[in-house]
Design goal:
By secondary structure, the chain is α+β, with helices and mostly antiparallel strands. It is 42% helix and 23% strand. It contains 4 helices and 4 strands; from the N terminus they run ααααββββ.
């Protein structure tokens, strides 16, 4: 019986520990932007978000840089294909980031980039 329970729970455990969870993607996306690693940040966002990111980088990249950035996870709302991650930043301000599932991977959606 325990063997069957383990087999049934194993996929959930793998999904929960995945490096590509909504929480991990949101945190990585924010940290890469704050560090100025814009090319790395692009792999975590949708094409629409990438377009917005490119516009900001083109016009005012210094507004995105934040060497003091801190991501403290608060909570998440998970759906089948959508997720919202809530976190506080280094100023203890509550922020959120929306993600959608694109081809099996979580991607940040267009956002106002005030991390």
């Amino acid at each position: 019986m325990k063997k069957y329970l383990l087999i049934l729970c194993l996929p959930l455990l793998i999904l929960a520990c995945s490096n590509d969870s909504p929480r991990t993607v949101a945190e990585s996306f924010c940290k890469e932007i704050a560090s100025g690693n814009f090319d790395k940040a692009r792999k975590y966002c949708t094409e629409d978000a990438e377009t917005i990111l490119d516009l900001i980088i083109e016009n005012a990249p210094e507004q995105l840089l934040n060497p003091e950035f801190k991501f403290t996870f608060e909570r998440e709302e998970l759906g089948e294909e959508e997720a919202t991650i809530y976190y506080t930043n280094e100023k203890n301000q509550m922020r959120s980031i929306n993600l959608i599932l694109v081809d099996g991977k979580w991607k940040a959606q267009p956002i106002s980039l005030h991390i």
